[in-house]
């Protein structure tokens, strides 16, 4: 694995390369809520992402109400608990952990940002993921932590939850991203070397 040297800088001066190498999925948050002003800055960074045919298919929903976050978590866990437990022992343990009454799928993060795709073409989902990466790197640059919670996607895309949250029925929730201050520093995660299939 080739690692670039990481400078010790303030978050406001972090380069894009530093953010790429320092961003980690965080699953332990403090109760400190991110301000509306800072979230708007992150959304502005998100919408600078590349977009096919300049469709800009993304729309955003920000949830900071603890009771709503808790209800989404419980609904997602209930849906997950109704699936048969996986036969693999390690996966079965994970199943038990995810369905535990004390477990929050949002890891007690104070903010959840939903990136939703409008039905404008075959690349809308890909565009939304590009916006998600922009948002997460910008958050890292501001000293904030993030994690994509794919576990919540099926629940958020039900008719009932779309209606409650005010998401148009034809939209698709693509990327639910929790956001906040990390309660502890995430450990570095090694990555495999890039596999090159060819160089023509």
Give descriptors for this structure.
200 residues, NADH Oxidase, 7 helices, 36% helix, disordered N terminus
Describe this structure in words.
With 200 residues, the chain is an alpha+beta fold. It has a domain at 24-81 and 110-180: NADH Oxidase (3-Layer(aba) Sandwich). The protein is 36% helix and 13% strand. The chain is built from seven helices and four strands, in the order H-H-E-H-H-E-H-E-H-H-E. It has helices at residues 16-22, 36-46, 66-81, 89-98, 124-141, 153-156, 159-165, and strands at residues 58-63, 111-117, 145-148, 172-180. A four-stranded antiparallel β-sheet has the order 1-2-4-3. Helix 1 (16-22) crosses helix 5 and helix 2 packs across helix 5 (124-141). Mean pLDDT is 90; it is low at 1-11.
Q: Residue share in helices?
A: 25-40%
Round the Cα radius of gyration to an integer and report it.
Answer: 18 Å
Query: What structural class results from the helix and strand content?
Result: alpha+beta
Query: What is the subunit organization of this protein?
Result: single chain
Compute the number of helices.
7
CATH topology of the domain at 24-81 and 110-180: NADH Oxidase
- Main β-sheet, spatial strand arrangement: 1-2-4-3
Give the second-level CATH assignment, the architecture of the domain at 24-81 and 110-180: 3-Layer(aba) Sandwich
Structure summarized in a few sentences:
This protein has 200 residues and is of the alpha+beta class. It has 7 helices and 4 strands, in the order H-H-E-H-H-E-H-E-H-H-E.
